[in-house]
Amino acid sequence: MKEVLDNMADKASSGNNMLLSVRGVHKAFGLNEVLKGIDLDVGEGEVLALIGGNGAGKSTLMKIIMGIYQPDRGELSIAGETMSSLKPSAALARGIYMVPQEPMLFPNMTVEENVLIGFKEKTAVLKKKLVQIMDDIGWHLDLTRKAMSLSIAEQQLVELLRGLLRESRVLILDEPTSALTFDEVESLFKIVKDLQAKGIGIVYITHRLAEVFEIATDVAIMRDGIVTLKGKVVDFTREMLVKGLLPPNMEEMEEKEKEEETVLDYSKLQPVFELQDFSGYGFEDVNLKIYPGEILGVAGVVGAGRTELATTIFGRDRVLRGKAVLGGKDVTGMSTAQVLKEGINYVPEDRRLNGLFGISDVAANTTSSLLGDEKMGRVFLNKKAEEEVTQKYVDDFRTKVTGQDQIAGSLSGGNQQKIVIGRALSTNPRLVILDEPTRGIDAAARGDVYSIIHKLKSQGVAVMLISSDMEEIVELSDRAVVVFQGRIRGEFKKEEISQASLMAASFGVSE
User: Fold this and answer.
1) In a domain, 29, yes or no
2) How large is the average pLDDT for residues 258-281?
């Protein structure tokens, strides 16, 4: 690998000391301004750790640097060459390569074919260089394996090999350790340090603050489309980084929200639902209880294991060990149909992909969980019962529809979400899991969803509220837990819930 790194170093030093500069970059999608004037620099031998909560604008910024999106205004400078925008091919030609968090491989092609695709050099020369890189790194992938047979970690390694083989000047690593084992992480850190020593610039996107202090030279915090903090890592503590992630008026907002709040005592109640050392793919050893009429907030960054926990409870994914108990009954490993019957329902994170039958009407979407129920008809659909159930939730949720026969996919995002929640509640669950219930909906619809959640609470339904919106967790939750790297990092009573405590635990920092 020495020859490859030397070539990369020569390319990196062929310009000035600044390999990549971003100046005044703005980007909006419709009325949503995602980037609001971003300034960032990556110099030779620098590892810039880029940190930000979900929706901060990190991905949009990286896509602009890679030429996938074009900025509305602002400019980029690559090794001294200034431009207002560029195409993906131009970004690659100028030595910028991004290793995505979600690998983008051709499943029916081999490892070798996936890595070598797009190169003009002879295959024999490229393969020799590739084998040399793999030997020096210590990764032993069978180049003849099909990509579809690789684990997520192995797919990520293939993506990194693509960048190394291209002898990139600037490597963008998006959450590179999220699916790697400890040994693989150690190998990756060694590579990063080798590249850094050769003058290669690296943008290292991460949610793990411990990695910032282990691998980065510089750090930048993004929040709501702006850079709130940046500088040399040695000038910051973990607590300072967490503070940079929080809104400036956070303390005032939280004090106002907590005035005259009633703190409920669940100590004398029996839990509706309980997890005991519950483990599955993406999380392990989760222990928690949810009580009747309680809203349990589940916070954490994307990839922490929150959704995997929810889908496993709901019977969509396999339980590896531990127990799930609903109302004193063991429901561990039950199918989704059985879980529904027992009294658990789930509103998925992606309503379009997993929550809505877009080409079916409002009535069919609302009552689909009741098919086969005695009231709805075991053989033939009871249309009158379907209309009654549908109208109940249309009225209760103030859903704006032209009629029950309106196609669900034609509704606004907020009204689609109300339909999905209505279907979940039509089964009269004892526990309802809401995964990002207000994502992608407007302020008015958000208020309606909050009213629905409060109504569930008043009816004694237990609510597990999964949200990346810390303000939402603070506003709605009676108690909150934070998932970090697949484990419960912290548990907070009502009076202890704050954006600061949630954010710190979400990034692995103990207050």
Assistant:
1) no
2) 76
Report phi then psi at 50, rounded to 5: -110, 120
Q: Does 40 fall in a domain?
A: no
More confident residue, 145 or 448: 145
Span between the terminal Cα atoms of the chain, in Å = 42
Residues facing 82 on adjacent strands: 77
Give the Cα separation of 299 and 481 in Å (integer): 6
CA distances from 348 to 6, 310, 352, 394, 460 (A): 48, 9, 9, 20, 22
Mean pLDDT in the chain?
Answer: 82
What does the buried/exposed string (b/e) look like for 38-47 if buried means 16 or more CB atoms within 10 Å of the residue's CB? bebbbbbbbb
Residue 46 has pLDDT above 80, yes or no: yes
Does 264 map to a domain? no
Compute φ and ψ for 202, nearest 5 degrees.
Answer: -135, 130
In terms of domains, do 222 and 183 share one? yes
Q: Tell me: do 317 and 374 sit in the same domain.
A: no
User: Domain for residue 33, yes or no?
Assistant: no
Structural domain including 495 reads: 272-343+430-441+453-511
**Alpha carbon distance 71, 35 (integer Å):** 9
Q: How far apart are CA 41 and CA 47, in angstroms?
A: 10
Sign of torsion over alpha carbons 22, 36, 246, 474? negative
What is the rounded distance in angstroms from the CA atom of residue 65 to the CA atom of residue 95?
11
Confidence of residue 13 (pLDDT cuts 50, 70, 90): very low
Confidence class for position 12, pLDDT limits 50, 70, 90: very low
Same structural domain, 283 and 401 = no
Q: Which long-range contacts (CB under 8 A, 24 or more apart) does 453-459 make?
A: 453/295, 455/396, 456/425, 456/432, 457/293, 457/294, 457/295, 458/293, 459/293
461 lies in the same domain as 491:
yes
Q: Do 384 and 278 fall within a single domain?
A: no
